[in-house]
Prior knowledge:
The complex is a heterodimer.
Chain A: H1 21-25, H2 29-57, H3 68-103, H4 111-130, H5 158-185, H6 198-229, H7 243-260, H8 263-277, H9 284-297, H10 313-325, H11 327-341, H12 350-373, H13 375-381, H14 385-415, H15 421-447, H16 462-491
Chain B: H1 15-38, H2 44-73, H3 79-118, H4 161-184, H5 188-219, H6 227-259, H7 269-294
Amino acid sequence: xxxxxxxxxxxxxxxxxxxxxxxxxxxxxxxxxxxxxxxxxxxxxxxxxxxxxxxxxxxxxxxxxxxxxxxxxxxxxxxxxxxxxxxxxxxxxxxxxxxxxxxxxxxxxxxxxxxxxxxxxxxxxxxxxxxxxxxxxxxxxxxxxxxxxxxxxxxxxxxxxxxxxxxxxxxxxxxxxxxxxxxxxxxxxxxxxxxxxxxxxxxxxxxxxxxxxxxxxxxxxxxxxxxxxxxxxxxxxxxxxxxxxxxxxxxxxxxxxxxxxxxxxxxxxxxxxxxxxxxxxxxxxxxxxxxxxxxxxxxxxxxxxxxxxxxxxxxxxxxxxxxxxxxxxxxxxxxxxxxxxxxxxxxxxxxxxxxxxxxxxxxxxxxxxxxxxxxxxxxxxxxxxxxxxxxxxxxxxxxxxxxxxxxxxxxxxxxxxxxxxxxxxxxxxxxxxxxxxxxxxxxxxxxxxxxxxxxxxxxxxxxxxxxxxxxxxxxxxxxxxxxxxxxxxxxxxxxxxxxxxxxxxxxxxxxxxxxxxxxxxxxxxxx
Amino acid sequence: xxxxxxxxxxxxxxxxxxxxxxxxxxxxxxxxxxxxxxxxxxxxxxxxxxxxxxxxxxxxxxxxxxxxxxxxxxxxxxxxxxxxxxxxxxxxxxxxxxxxxxxxxxxxxxxxxxxxxxxxxxxxxxxxxxxxxxxxxxxxxxxxxxxxxxxxxxxxxxxxxxxxxxxxxxxxxxxxxxxxxxxxxxxxxxxxxxxxxxxxxxxxxxxxxxxxxxxxxxxxxxxxxxxxxxxxxxxxxxxxxxxxxxxxxxxxxxxxxxxxxxxxxxxxxxxxxxxxxxxxxxxxxxxxxxxxxxx
Lengths: 527, 295
């Protein structure tokens, strides 16, 4: 069928290799995608366990379970593991599985480098997690590792943390280069850029953001490394440096980073909502431009994380208005999702439930973000639980619901089986209720003045914290159900058709379910 | 896009996992050297870890690139594969640009904001209360706290060694382009001469830079510890120097491959990638010369 010119042509259509070397040596985008997804879920459970420790300690006022020192390590590691270990790898896993199938490519453009990108992650997290057992404990300065907490006052393990971040960065950059090379070079004939599925578009832009800002993260941790070990004074005013410089460089990375964690979810939801509305996506071109606009704006809003640190008034104003501008393209997207559903023939299978919840709850997170963007008002809620509520509303029902929606949507394609719809709906409703119970009261706590990153709090915050902890336990336990649903789906279940969703569009549904080990060795023709 | 039929998807490969073990071992070793050293513990075990990791990395680099070269020479790569490599290298260089951008950003921030504020100017002039009487200058020859960070006595004069280095690097960008044109015209003797000249210029550059560092440390008290001027100076020029060394290694490998008869006038992306990288290193240097040395 294909004019493969390599000498292995006869075994080109073989299946996977046997044994564990299949996973160690693989160059197959589906294997690598699966490994990313499994790794991400393992990290999700680990980071989630740390969240459970945090919520258990905060269940009541007073110190019950852990020492404040360990509590700080938990908040730090929870954030780092969820951002770099759970959310980002999950989206890279989805990209690996889906992008080649959605654009009609035989694999990723650089398959060996793809495998390296993955395997660097377990290595990096092995180093990061090992810091928990080092003298002085794990990093305890928050996932944003502000200097001088992380430089002058950090534990000795900070140096190991820095190198772990370097390895994660190498992994992300190579992964992103691979995604861009694949999308720009391996599209099937006839698939112009403006015919690409939105998931592919959002990943193209995400990959650009990754390549632009991960090196900046590498730069800022390198400056930390030098300040800690070699006596430089980047973040030390005694030598003419400035701790605020750390925040500028960090958030120059950090703000695009939050879009790195949400844009692929935008893309996935833009696939799922049309499928279950049985209507084409409303305003495809405006969706593409909106994502581009969000990505560009993400480079000029970073100091909205730093309104209270003492930046010049002109800076406060610029970053306030620039941040508010982001609401415009985001509003375009929300409008288009709603318009897609409007007068559609809707059905609410698990992917659609998660996608609709995504639209509603992410919008709540967006609105609280808009509140935080108002510089004078931010002085009131800076570093309170309001901020915690805000970013958990964009990350949990945003990024993570986007991942769940994608997983349910494409599981039939990956495994060849339908997942258990009843259990999946249970998973959705328990997650939905648990998550809102956990994070909604945090808005009130924050507005009432409860600071973030503390193991103990004043008595008037007790009730909302207890509700929040109950919701968190509920959400956490529910995720074991997700594990069960996926394992059950992998092992068996109702046979899935090539296109199990009536309204689904795209090349991936032209392939049989489960998708064969090698797909599109000859590219399809796009009309 | 129409040539997907021959896109080469490699078989299973052991190199990624070896590279992972190598990189993680190396960096774990480096971190252990730093942490054990700062706590006054023995660093010999850490050095051994670092050494083993580096050897694994060296083995991996030879093996992985060797595999790619032999695949390329046996004709497995299509023009489409070539485009993937080009995109890959271009975006890799873009990531390097952003890495340097972080350090240039730190330099500009220190010069334009942090140091003047400490001197009592501008919107955050109250910072001057930290070290009253501190005078902001650039180059910063008096640190706010001279006990903790003894300031440099003088800085490197841009119109001596750095100017020589600028001439060396700009000429080397020129010589590598001459070599590239010679390769396109299948004039191998000429390629060898001009590529060797490029490598020679690069090595002289590194030697001059090393001498400049020696001068800075031995006579000017310009060190990593001499405040924000020394910090930005050594981090920018140091990372640039490291990239020059990496680029020189790439060019040396290309020279060896030319001697072995690799490359054709049409297909020589390895050579082009190395020369792209070399031009990138050159452009970064021009930025350094202007913003670190002259201004």
